[in-house]
Design a protein that fits this description.
single chain; 435 residues; alpha+beta; Lysozyme-like; six-stranded mixed β-sheet; 12 helices; globular; disordered N terminus
Length: 435
Amino acid sequence: MTAVKGEPTRRELLHAGLATILAIPAAFGCLPAFGTTGSATLKIIDHLSPLNQRRPLRPHTLYIVLHTTEGAEAGSLDKVWRRGETHYFVAPDGRVLRIIDRAKIATHAGRSMWEGHCNIDDYAIGIEVVGYHDQDITEAQYPALRTLLSQLKSIYSIGDKRVLTHSMVAYGCPNFFHPNNHRGRKRCGMIFARPDVRLKLGLAAKPEHDVDVETGRLVVGDTGLYQFLYDRGSAAVVAGTHRRVQVPAVQVPAESNIITKNWTPWNIARERYDQPDTIYAFPDGKRLRGDQIQDWNKIPEGTRVQVAENENEQPMVGFLEIGKDGDTTRALAGDAFDRETTIYFFPNGLIRTGRDLKSDKTTRVLLDRPPQGTRVLLGYIYGGFVRSRRPPSSIAGIKWNYPSTIYRFPDGRIASGDEIDDSAIPVRTLIFYQH
């Protein structure tokens, strides 16, 4: 049988079916001991998210992505549980909680890419480990995580080099500080790139380079992080090229939350630098939210940046907004600003692809001067309207109920695929799904 592009192969369907069967004994507290090292079984505590029932089966399982919570256990657990943002949660005392069934999609990676695959949630199992990106995990977490990784690698035939960190796969969109799509959006999980940590977790190898950077799909936004993840010394990739040069890493100041000449708001808060929950305390005592700052060139040295412990959401390759994320279509979408897979939602209700806007003289001006509040979807297919004889599954296929699939109802409301009741979708609802 020849696989249709975008559809799961027979082998992948068998894997999904096997994962579902294997989930049955797991529901009673342990994973089956396939190829384990150390303990034969691992006690798993069910703490299933209320979104678990709605999440679809994941058609591909190519990677495991390791995260650090960057916050305390209680707040972090509540967040990932409510939002279904991980498959497993490893507490400081070694307890392992199941949040989303491992055969289903969990929204843990957000805006992400690896080996050309966008939205790694569709391809990976996510594991949240309570801890911080620059601190070692607890002695109780090591054996629990090691056993969990060993079993998942065996079940899904995942090699050590495909056990990744969130900091490896996350990427940021163009912004004031970076004109291109760039690596460095997250430091999350970077501790799991350390060779000594990986060895303690039974991982004998790790990725040797970032193929998305080396092929020009992304550029390096944080040279120091790139060097840490891949042990590259001072090698970095010149923006927009595949050429390596020697570039010294930016030196982190003693107080890493204070702005200096070479330590910018982005270095401190990453893409949350302009968010309302990021607070800037100026040397003169004045305080502003990130969304209140008009000129990023005029922030004085010595300004202290306070970033919320847990971010509000995992950004997808999804909505960006003119006036908030950038002032021009090129700033938001780069070279993809006029493509069919870039979709514009204008404040007056007009929805068009970049290609449609460019090809029509009456709308071409909107690409040059989009109104404030215009929202943009990147890397999506305009699926068209739901009709009585055209259900969502005939438009988006298996992606119809993916968390990344966007529904726009006739009254303007927006919902994701895992929020949809397929028996109550009104006709003329628009569907947009990832390319």
